[in-house]
């Protein structure tokens, strides 16, 4: 008869109680990471074996059953511990993120899909820069590399070469992509090279689909077979056999930060998993985040540059259009005459146009249509946000407020405007201006996977003349027939009340500009803006990352923002505004008594009233991360949330 043993278990969020760790007994040995069913009250919920423990002094219940699933690999168990500690997250929320939902369900076996034929790596030769980059990575003593390559420089080709080397050594590969729109393109390139060794996942998969991919990955791991896993940040938690390479493509993207518990960042988690497994980590971007650049400058990662496009054409020529000039808005509210003329010429040549609009600016700043003036907070040097219900401008960090002026305080003109407008309105306007044009729109409202695939199929087949979209079309897409890119409003993100606004604006303009001229013709870009003299817009128009980044880093250092300090964003959600303000003020005053902390706020969140709750924010800065983790672990109630290393302070 088997000896009774006792186990400490973590319950993923299938259990809704407050406690998330329990001790149970079982007649037999269970490994750490084993997934089990345990009784809690009248229910049976999932549990993950954390460790074996000594017999407790209290009575325990038996584990109902050990599921017929391979235990979670030890390196993922290590990663779960790190995520919980580093992000002050409950082990329960961590395991709920790492394991696919429905993992315990019995599913009908599916017929095996026909295997894809691998054609091998592309046969065209590497460019001299690509060859030099590969040689540098192979010879480097570093295991972490930042590949900064201009748009169209061929970073994906480097990923393919490095993946082939990992597979040849019997090791697996994880490729992270930030957007579902990029997934079909990247998957097709890797499937062409490696065939059925590629497993892909994305947010549009059903629960059964995610479970199937997880099961395939676990089966390959158990059999000692390397695989290539491609997908968004969640595929970082896939089981794989001997991980050898992690690639984080477009590593600057904010979508790599999870907005729910655990609020982890995939770049940090990827670095930790690479350390656990001895894998090589490659971060790729045309416009690396200032945090990644800071690491490279301090020799924490190796910095590799690709300065030329693989097609040997120059970077697209950019024209900045000053929206303060009323004479250039003759026929359209959104499209100026120079951009209108360019679209007409592009269509006449049988080529394609991309129009980009950032919808995130729908609740943004008040800007003067005559001089472009935007009022900033005197304390935080960030744009004030207009609140129509109060007719006031408010800082969403320190809570500075002022009445909304009737005239511009700079030029005294009465042409004050709110930035906004969405893709549907632009689509309707373009349809009116170009009734013969074949239009396509890509945004969150239209982003089904089938629609995405059909849109890109039509674009590549030349059956679309004008593509209109949001950030989904700004990154990494290789559409060789696009000659003209129009940025309808470059200001919407620029004037968000956040310290990263200039950086995000530069990155987005640079990325979307890079969609032009990727075929056999040089591209051109038109940037419509009320602030043509802003450093971020000028730098993006001239592709001057080397000039923009140092200046922005100097400003971050002067104002004490990352990467020079650590940040913690604390948010309270209360049923009444008075409760939110009172509790937030009390906690802020308490935190100010701790030496070494810089406490801002409380102030209303960018969207103060959400889901019938009032949200107020406290921002805490510190030179070390440990005190912030301690604060996050000791919040006074479930109505508070903590976000360590937030990607914005909205």
Report on the structure:
The chain is an alpha/beta fold and about 650 residues long. The protein has four domains: about 5-100, GIY-YIG endonuclease (3-Layer(aba) Sandwich), CATH 3.40.1440.60; about 130-305, Rossmann fold (3-Layer(aba) Sandwich), CATH 3.40.50.300; about 315-365 and about 420-555, Rossmann fold; about 565-645, Ribosomal protein S10 (Alpha-Beta Plaits), CATH 3.30.70.600. It is about 30% helix and about 25% strand. It has 16 helices and 28 strands. The strands form six sheets. A seven-stranded parallel β-sheet has the order 9-10-8-11-12-7-13, with helices on both faces. It has a six-stranded mixed β-sheet with strand order 5-2-1-4-3-6. Strands 14-24-23-15-22-21 form a six-stranded parallel β-sheet, sandwiched between helices. It is globular and about 85 Å long. The N and C termini lie far apart (about 60 Å). The mean pLDDT is about 90.
């Amino acid at each position: 008869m088997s000896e009774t043993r006792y186990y400490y278990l973590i319950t993923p969020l299938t259990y809704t109680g407050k406690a998330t760790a329990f001790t149970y007994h079982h007649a037999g040995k269970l490994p750490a990471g084993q997934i089990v069913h345990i009784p809690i009250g009248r229910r049976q919920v999932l549990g993950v074996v954390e460790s074996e423990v000594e017999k407790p002094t209290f009575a325990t219940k038996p584990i109902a059953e050990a599921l017929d699933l391979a235990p979670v690999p030890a390196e993922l168990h290590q990663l779960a511990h790190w995520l919980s500690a580093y992000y002050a997250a409950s082990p329960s929320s961590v395991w709920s993120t790492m394991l696919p939902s429905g993992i315990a369900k019995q599913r009908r076996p599916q017929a095996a899909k026909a295997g894809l034929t691998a054609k091998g790596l592309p046969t065209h030769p590497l460019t001299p820069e690509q060859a030099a980059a590969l040689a540098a990575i192979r010879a480097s003593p570093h295991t972490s590399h930042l590949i900064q390559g201009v748009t169209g420089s061929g970073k994906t080709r480097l990923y393919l070469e490095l993946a082939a080397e990992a597979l040849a050594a019997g090791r697996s590969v994880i490729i992270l992509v930030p957007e579902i729109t990029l997934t079909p393109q990247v998957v097709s390139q890797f499937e062409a090279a490696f065939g059925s060794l590629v497993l892909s996942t994305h947010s549009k998969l059903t629960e059964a689909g995610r479970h199937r991919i997880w099961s395939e990955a676990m089966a390959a791991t158990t059999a000692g077979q390397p695989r290539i896993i491609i997908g968004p940040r969640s595929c970082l938690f896939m089981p794989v056999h001997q991980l050898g390479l992690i690639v984080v493509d477009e590593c600057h993207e904010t979508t790599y930060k999870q907005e729910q518990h655990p609020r982890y960042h995939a770049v940090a988690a990827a670095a930790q998993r690479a350390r656990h497994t001895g894998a090589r980590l490659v971060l790729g971007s045309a416009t690396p985040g200032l945090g990644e650049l800071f690491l490279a400058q301090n020799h924490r990662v190796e910095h590799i540059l690709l300065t030329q496009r693989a097609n040997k054409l120059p970077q697209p020529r950019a024209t900045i259009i000053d929206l303060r000039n009323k004479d250039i808005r003759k026929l359209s509210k959104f499209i100026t005459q120079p951009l209108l003329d360019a679209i007409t010429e592009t269509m006449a040549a049988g080529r394609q146009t991309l129009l980009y609009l950032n919808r995130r600016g729908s609740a943004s700043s008040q800007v003067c249509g005559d001089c472009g003036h935007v009022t900033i907070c005197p304390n935080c040097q960030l744009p004030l946000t207009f609140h129509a219900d109060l007719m006031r401008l408010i800082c969403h960090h320190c809570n500075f407020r002022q009445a909304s002026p009737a005239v511009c305080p700079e030029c005294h003109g009465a042409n004050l405007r709110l930035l906004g407008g969405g893709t549907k309105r632009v689509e309707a306007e373009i349809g009116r201006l170009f009734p013969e044009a074949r239009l396509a729109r890509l945004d969150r409202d239209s982003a089904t996977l089938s629609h995405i695939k059909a849109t890109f199929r039509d674009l590549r087949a030349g059956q679309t003349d004008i593509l209109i979209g949001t950030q989904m079309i700004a990154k990494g897409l290789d559409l060789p027939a696009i000659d003209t890119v129009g940025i309808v409003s470059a200001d919407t993100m620029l004037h968000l009340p956040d310290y990263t606004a200039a950086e995000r604006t530069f990155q987005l303009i640079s990325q979307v500009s890079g969609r032009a001229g990727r075929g056999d013709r040089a591209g051109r870009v038109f940037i419509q803006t009320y602030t043509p003299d802003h450093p971020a817009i000028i730098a993006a128009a001239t592709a001057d990352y080397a000039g923009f980044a140092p200046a922005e880093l100097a400003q971050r250092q002067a104002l004490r923002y990352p990467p020079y300090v650590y940040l913690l964003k604390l948010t309270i959600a209360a049923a009444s505004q008075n409760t939110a303000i009172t509790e937030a003020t009390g906690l802020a005053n308490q935190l100010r008594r701790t030496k070494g902390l810089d406490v801002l706020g409380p102030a209303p969140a960018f969207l103060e009233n959400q889901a019938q709750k009032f949200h107020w924010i406290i921002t805490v800065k510190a030179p070390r991360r440990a005190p912030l983790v301690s604060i996050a672990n000791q919040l006074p109630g479930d109505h508070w949330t903590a976000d360590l290393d937030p990607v914005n302070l909205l």
